[in-house]
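It is worth pausing here to work through a concrete case rather than discussing structure prediction in the abstract. The textbook approach is simple: state the sequence, then state the predicted structure, then interpret. We follow exactly that order.
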Amino acid sequence: MQNVKGISIIYYCWLFFKLAVPVTGAISSLTV
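Step two, the predicted structure:
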């Protein structure tokens, strides 16, 4: 069970990063 929990944390971090990059890029392009 511990291994599955570790994989989910990595997956959620990756998912957050994948969503955060376009959002950050959009905010940067609006700010500049």
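Step three, interpretation. Residues 2-31 form the longest helix (30 residues). The radius of gyration is 14 Å.
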